[in-house]
Amino acid sequence: MPFTTRLVGLILMLIGIGAYLLTGRTSVTALIPAFFGVAFVGLAYVARKEAARRHAMHAAVTLALIGVLGTLGRAIPAVAAGQLMRPAVLAQLVTAVVLGIYVWMGVRSFIAAQRARKA
Predict the structure, then answer these.
(1) pTM for this entry
(2) What pLDDT is stored for residue 86 in this prediction?
(3) CB atoms < 10 A from the CB of 53, how many?
(4) CA-based end-to-end distance of the chain
(5) Rounded distance, CA 57 to CA 76, Å?
(6) What is the enclosing helix (H) or strand (E) of 106?
(7) What is the pLDDT along the chain (119 residues), one digit of tens a residue?
(8) Which of 50, 90, 54, 56 is nearest to 74 (CA)?
(9) At 116, phi and psi to the nearest 5?
């Protein structure tokens, strides 16, 4: 899971930088996915230590869930208003999808680890 976390972090950084450039570098808020990405890379780094892995991965999945909820909270009204093709809205939707998949993968990993500990 630490490798996946680092990969998701790098993807989020690319989304944030791309959104920032596509929106004309007018708003720092376009970099929010990149800020999340930095946090994910940091948590993946912390997870390299076996003793800290469980806590770091739980923190990463929690952060991802917060990111999904926050991103969708802004993207859904924009899509409903017919702004789907705006670069900022597209970046929000892509970020929500990436984070949603990560949450799903994390929960599956936690369940598998729990079953392995019981066995």
Answers:
(1) 0.89
(2) 86
(3) 17
(4) 20
(5) 28
(6) helix 87-118
(7) 889 999 999 999 999 999 999 888 888 888 999 999 999 999 999 999 999 999 999 999 999 999 999 999 989 999 999 888 888 889 999 999 999 999 999 999 999 988 888 87
(8) 90
(9) -65, -35
Q: How far is CA 76 from CA 9, 48, 69, 99, in A?
A: 23, 36, 10, 16
Q: Which residues contact 3 (CB under 8 A, 6 or more apart)?
A: 44
Give residue 97's pLDDT.
96
Which residue, among 29, 37, 28, has the nearest Cα to 95 in the 3D structure?
37
Angle at 37 between CA 39 and CA 22, to 5 degrees: 145
Q: Please give the structure tokens belonging to residue 77.
A: 């009204």
Max CA pair span of the chain: 54
